[in-house]
Amino acid sequence: MSPTAAPLVMDDLDRAVDAVLDRVSGDIVLGIPLGIGKPNPFVNALYRRLKAQDTRRLRIVTALSLEKPVGKSELERHFLAPLVERVFADYPDLDYVKDSRAGTLPAHIEVREFFLKTGDYLGNAAAQQGYISTNYTFVARDMALQGMNVIAQAVASDGEGAHWQLSLSSNPDLTFEIAERYAAQGLPLLKVGVVNQRMPFMPNHAEVGPDFFDIVVTDPRGTHELFAPPNGKVSTADYAIGLHASSLVRDGGTLQIGIGSLGDAIAQALILRERQGADYRRILTTLCPDGLDGRETGRFEQGLYGCSEMFVNGFLQLMEAGIVRREVFDDAVLQELINAGRIPDLAVTPDTLRALQAAGRIDSPLRQRDLEFLGRFGILKAGLRREGHELVDGDTRLRNDLDDADAFEAICSAWLGTRLAHGVFMTGGFFLGPGDFYERLRHLPRSRLAKIDMTRIDFINQLYGQHRGEMELKRAQRRQASFINTTMMVTLLGAAVSDGLESGQVVSGVGGQYNFVAMAHALPDARSILMLRATHEHRDGLKSSIVWSYGHATIPRHLRDIVITEYGVADLRGQSDGDVVKRLICIADSRFQDELIRAAQSHGKLEAGWQVPEAHRHNLPATLDSRLHPWSEAGALPDFPFGTDLTADELHIVRALKRLKKATEHPVDLVRLALKALWENREAPPAYLQRLGLDEATDFKQLFIRKLFAGNL
């Protein structure tokens, strides 16, 4: 970014709010990043100031506003209180989130989000009406359309004085594009950076000078713990899905995955494939009744390049396991030569110079821009300059002529590098993860951290770009890409439902899912992989996640590609509707297959008399458990492959509470559990009862819950 005037550096949040209100006349439209990039203390200070007066309106435009968990029931609240205090420490909740959930947002304040915390705002009228449905790559444009005049972001800080640098850290995803759009249109935009010393300092494209901002706030109150959702348990179904997905990832390719237990399952499966190949293949064989043809089961000799809008803990685990290590370079011609094997092992040799010259990337004699390019990537010594017909470095002068054999040999002898420099093997737009994920980022050696490039979402989530050669660069970097995303439901004709219900209620948001699906179809060797669990709990009982039709779609059927459930892989690309129907039924839960067959036949999409092949007639949780349980017992598929913030006792309590909660949603199950608990007359450990506030239960309801809880341990 081009430098602006020196920023106003302020060491007090309240005075920073004063400065914003003084510099912006009229209503405030505040843009803040999604996830952990929000400067919560500053946002709260501004919100409280404007909430107390109704002379100026406030509109907040953002996404993924995070809040510490509090629990919906008394049991959950008792259980969560010490866990939240331990894990989230001094993380400050956002006041506007609290008021939005309580339905108490003032009339002159509104919140508009383009991605909601999953499932948290169902039935919340203000949040549902304020939701903006858009693809991630259009968010910067759409935030501008909301009239945004202030953007505020939490930043990391490094150095001091003339060496003081800031980093957009977790969220360079939209800020640069927004600033550029406003500058190009001549629109006013006040940029506020709030230093949070707990933010990892990310280099490369996330790094900026303080003068990028108009106001930089250094108040220690801006520093707080980052929102750190604990790792979730990876279930048997999650592992089955992750194992299938991992067998579609090609060595030397590109990987995109998301957060949560399915992302962890894929990462663990890839590590298993790398480190315990024989076991990996045996496990996969039990899950694949049609054999392993077309599956990838070998080690990662070349490694993977991570390119994902979300840089998650799973990627860091894969980096540490040596799997995500394929370096890419910010030059299309150089990257294409690497892909073609012209620069083996990224080693710089005289042939490297010859290959670049033959490709037209450098000239002879070398121009100044050629010297800058060659110096940047470690091909020639950095800092060489031209003087007339010579190249100069200190007292050394050599003839600038690559076509002359003697001059070429002299240049190589004096200044040729040994290995390409400034490659990265992870590109991300924002990050979110457990506490130890942030801690490891904060302590990574600078050389290792430089291999991670947090950058703009308009670079990551699409192929086209504003700069010449950008599409060619992306296509060269993202070879053999596996773009793996999660969805909620899939119709038998291949449409995917990922963000909303047919009632119009928004569960989460489109985010970048459409972008990656479309990109998978635009790249010649990429695949879009959508994962879902074959069934889901509903208030009316268990339902199939593969359905005949649904009144909402996130991904249209014409972009269908690969779909995975715990029961297998359905490759839908280029297939007829009839074959798509058959392939999806074969990976559906067997309790719903006959119903799906009847629906497809009644609508003329499946021939009469078709039957599910015998190999796919046993798609049941018990069958799956019998296949994977031995491997869980052997430690290959642990519940928490990358650790957990919960203690052993807390995990024991959680399992019992989940069983109890599930039973309360189904009266028959509740009666059965109650009778079992009364018959067995078990008692829970006193420490567990105290944790849940049941140690001094006196009324019938508390005593009954106490007995049910003990019976579920």
From TrEMBL:
Q: Where does this protein have coiled-coil stretches?
A: none
Q: Which GO terms describe its molecular function?
A: acetate CoA-transferase activity; hydrolase activity
Q: What keywords would UniProt list here?
A: Hydrolase
What Pfam family is a match for this entry? AcetylCoA_hyd_C
User: Which residue intervals define the domain Acetyl-CoA hydrolase/transferase C-terminal in the entry?
Assistant: 436-600
- GO annotations under biological process? acetate metabolic process
Record's PANTHER family? ACETYL-COA HYDROLASE, ACETYL-COA HYDROLASE-RELATED
Name used for this protein in its record: Acetyl-CoA hydrolase
High-level lineage = Bacteria, Pseudomonadati, Pseudomonadota, Betaproteobacteria, Burkholderiales
